[in-house]
Amino acid sequence: LIQYEWSHRAKRREIVKHVQSALESSSDQEFDDEELEKLLDVQWDEMFDTVCDPPIQHQKCLQAVWELFHTELIFLHKQLLVLRNVYKEPLKRCQVEGCLLTVEPDLLFGNLDQLCRISRGFCKSFLTIMNDISKRQEELEVQQPERQCLCKAENVDSDQLDEHRGSTVADPFFDTTELIVRLFEKFSKGPSTISAYQAYCINYKATMEYLGSIRQKEERFNEFERVTCLLIGSLQSI
């Protein structure tokens, strides 16, 4: 019994060393993005900060658009990248050190990296288009005081002014419809989202069965899971 306890503790210390080293030294250049990370705690009204107060209906549109982006951002950072950086990469690091060699990361995590790239690409495309439209809307807002002065000077409303001058000025509020259309037009040209998630769904059952078999056969893997959870908890509390 004493020998078993010593062996168990030795295995635990070995795994702790490998996992801690992987977590502390990990630098994910492909997915690290400070610009996106800063938006995790941002609210919709902070992002769409306009000079003019939008109507209630338009506020609802802005909230819906922001929710589309923000839920994907949370899914990327708090689920996909956690699986990748907290479990997959430390597991591979342990295997480099000669530990947990019987575990197959590709069977366990499937096309996780592909899903991370697709999710990040969606968020980056969304942010690029949103910033582009926001910039144009800010330019329109700057024009509003000038238009109001012209309307007052010529004693006409804005529609009459546009008709008289042969031009039109767009709505000064953020164009949510244009954002959604441009987003999906751009995103549809990238990797096939449907095929990626289809592969994930098809392999899900086999992955869960494989995970169950590993937990039964590989004691060190159970220790790896416990150690990873404990270390992540301690890092999050700092």
UniProtKB/TrEMBL annotation:
PROSITE patterns: DH_2 (PS50010). Coiled coil: none annotated. GO terms for biological process: Rho protein signal transduction. Residues 60-224 form the DH domain. InterPro entries: DBL_dom_sf (IPR035899), DH_dom (IPR000219), PKHG5/7 (IPR040181). GO terms for molecular function: guanyl-nucleotide exchange factor activity. This is Putative neuronal RhoA GEF protein (inferred by orthology to a S. mansoni protein).
